[in-house]
Structures are given as structure tokens and as C-alpha cells.
Amino acid sequence: MAQAGTSRRDLLKGLGIGVGAGVASVIGAGQVAAAPMVGDAPKADADTSAQRVPFYGAHQAGIVNPRPAAGIIASFDIVATDLDQFETMMKLLTARIAFLTAGGAVAMRDPKLPPEDSGILGPDIAPDNLTVTVGLGDSFFEKTDWGKALKPNALDRMTQFPNDALDAALCHGDLSLQFCANTPDTAIHALRDIMKSLSEYLVMNWMMPGDVPQAKPAADGTTPSARNLLGFRDGSGNPDSTDEAKMRQVVWVTPENGEPGWALGGSYQVVRLIRNKVEHWDRTPLQEQERDFGRRKISGAPLDGGPNATERDVPDYSKDPEGKVTSFLSHIRRANPRTPETEANLILRRPFNYTSGALKNGQIDQGLIFICYQADLGMGFITVQSRLNGEAMEEYFKPFGGGYFFVLPGVSGPGDYLGSTLVSAARSL
Ligand SMILES: C=CC1=C(C)c2cc3[nH]c(cc4nc(cc5[nH]c(cc1n2)c(C)c5CCC(=O)O)C(CCC(=O)O)=C4C)c(C)c3C=C
Ligand SMILES: [Fe+2]
């Protein structure tokens, strides 16, 4: 007997007859595609699930490779402080990330036991562009004598800036995990896998899922920067992440930074959860919005560009010494005054938009998971944020969480593990 609810389409499919114009289509000789049902999974435009970011390398993945559409940032406390336990934990974490980012079949277990995998991706895990980037926070290093001795020089507990309203429950942590993937399901699957596999070592503090809106490529094949939840293109002024020499200067810890030897190839990660007052913003005149960011809303072009300027044009502040075109209070002029001296303060931004339900005051909780990477935390984020203190955009921004972490150097190959240089250095103390 046919199942209730599927009988009509199955019967029509069997007869090769469509349900009606626009809902069933001929897909081959004598075959008709069934009309989609309300419970059917949405169809992807293209199958990108096989896309894979290499896990092994001098640096961790998830920093200079392009952001996929989904992200999660999560902070944990590490229960293991003993060096041997820490090493075991890091080896396990490395093995899980190596598997999840490569993909593969889920092992079947005796049904009397809990299943090997959550099952949310089905029996085969696709790589889906997944990266998992691991950082260690100040509190981790401060727990032990070896940690204190080997802490990266600039790593500290994130302090409150003048416009912040930090919620202690959403700040700091011993370990950060940044998940990036083509789909939110892949990102959350990886988080759940790691939490289950490392449940005796990691306790979650806070997490925030986010996304990057997709954009169609332009006629010349380039893709514009994604828009944030204030409607502006976000990323135009980022240093070129495909320029390896630039990334060595801006992002990666090198011998010039004077950090402990084990940290070479790592990077400082800053996470800031920043609420956007979107209702207030949506009632702000366009010319004020553009003045306060310092860029055009539609094109992303700097304000000193002509009518055909694009987001890739570089503002020339030397021709605007009084700030008449691009205000001194504007976000981009404060963030990067583009003088020879401020070249040393460049950062690589990798933000995600977030939406998190309603606030108690009846407004939408939306904003930016601001994430940036730099070789020197003081010269990078802290200097840039200090310049931004008092900017015009403070009226619409409210930072409420986040933390500072040090992203470990990469894993050289299957015999290596995340944090191996730190463990060796600790053993040699
Ligand atoms: C301390 C660093 C920064 C914080 C925090 C920050 C928050 C923040 N930014 C936007 C939106 C935009 N930012 C843009 C540029 C930009 N922002 C920073 C730094 C911080 N932003 C820098 C260094 C720059 C580049 C400046 C330059 O080189 O010209 C822009 C313009 C487009 C772009 O370059 O990406 C937008 C838009 C939001 C919404 C936000 C917090 C919620
Ligand atoms: Fe910004």
C-alpha cells in the first residue's frame, strides 16, 4: 500500500505524468522529476561538498584562505594542565581535525553503543571546505609554570575598551576553535564531534555561529567583498591574503617578532562579539552612514573616488588634510590613516555576521563576529582599536564579548600534532 502523503507524486512519477505546470519537470526519456515536498532538503546550486582545504602546512588553515559561508567561534576551558595530559589532548584534537577536514565514511558500531557520529551529515563526511583553527588563551598559559615561561610575549587577557559592555560569560577562554565551512551543518557537526571526542579535556565557555553572505562574481570574474549587516561591503581594505610576503609581515610570527621559538608560524587571534544597533542604523540617512564609515554603501568605494570608483580604489588622505571628504571620525580613516608609520598596524580581518534572536529591549540581536589575525597583538588590533575609540560608528556598535588567543603553528604532516613545538619547549625547560 502506498504511504499517505507520498502516494500521489509516486503514482504520477510511475506513470511519467507531472503534477502540474511548474511543479514537476521531465528529466529524461519517460522520467518525470517528482514535485518537491515541503520536507525535501533544499537543492544546492552546485555541489561544493568535495572542496578541501589542506590541513598540513607551516601555518594552520582558516586564516589566509577565503572565508566560506559558515563559521563558528567557540571558547573552552581546558581541564588538563599536566603536560602529558595536554600532549594527549592535542594529539587527539589533531587527529579529529585531520579526519573531519579530509572527510570519510563513519565507522558503524554495535547498535547497543552510542553511534560513532552524530549522524547529522549522514554516513559519509564530506570535507565541505572545513577548517578548524586552534588558539590558546592567556588563562591557559597562566595556569602552569611552564605555561608562564613560554607564553607569547604580547598575549594578555582582553581588556575593556571605552565603548565596550563586556559580558563575563562571553569572554576569554583557555582554547579557541574557529570553524569555517561551506555549510553551517558541517561546522556544527565538527564542533559536536570535537566536543564528544575530547569531553574529558574541554568544557565549553561560549560559542557564536555566524555567516558570510554569498555574492555573485562580477563580469570580470572577481568577487566583491561580502556585505555586513549594516549593508556595507566589509573586507575592501584588507591586505592581500594571497601575497605571501605581506602575510609574513602582517599575520605570521617570524623571528623578527622576538617571540619564543616554539611560536614561529603562529599568529595572534582577536575575537570581538560586536552588536550592531540595526534599528537605529536603518533610520540613519544614507549620507551619514557613508560619512561615518568613509565609503559608499552600494559600491564600497572610498568617498574621494569618482562616480566609477570601486571598493578596490585606495583613498588618498594626503589630498584631504582637513578631513572634509573623509571625516577624521570615520571608521576607515581612524582604522587605517594610511601613513608610512601606520603600515606597521595592519591586521587581517576575517569576520562573520551573526544573528541571535531578540534582545530583551525588543530589538534584533545582530552584529559582527569580528575576528582578526596579526603577528603582533599590540601593534595590530590593540593599536587599531585604540585609534577607533571615539569614532562616529560607536553610536551603532556595542562590543559585548570575545578574547585574545594565540593560534598555534601548523602541523607539518601525519607524524606531527598541534602544539608539538610548545610541548617540546616545555620539556626542555
Ligand atoms: C579594531 C579593529 C576593528 C574593529 C573592531 C572593526 C569593527 C567593525 N568594522 C565594521 C565594518 C567595516 N570595517 C571596515 C574597514 C576596516 N575596519 C578595520 C578595523 C576594525 N573594524 C580596518 C583596519 C579596516 C580597513 C580600513 C582601511 O584599510 O581602509 C569597512 C570598510 C570596508 C573594508 O575595508 O573592509 C567596513 C564596512 C563593522 C560593521 C564593525 C563592527 C561591528
Ligand atoms: Fe571595521
TrEMBL record:
Its cofactor is heme b. Keywords: Heme, Iron, Lyase, Metal-binding, Oxidoreductase, Peroxidase, Signal. It is found in: Cell envelope. Its EC number is 1.11.1.-. Residues 310-320 have a biased composition (Basic and acidic residues). GO terms for molecular function: ferrochelatase activity; heme binding; metal ion binding; peroxidase activity. The keyword Lyase applies. Binds 1 heme b (iron(II)-protoporphyrin IX) group non-covalently per subunit. Involved in the recovery of exogenous heme iron. Extracts iron from heme while preserving the protoporphyrin ring intact. NCBIfam families: Dyp_perox_fam, TAT_signal_seq, tat_substr_1. This is Deferrochelatase.
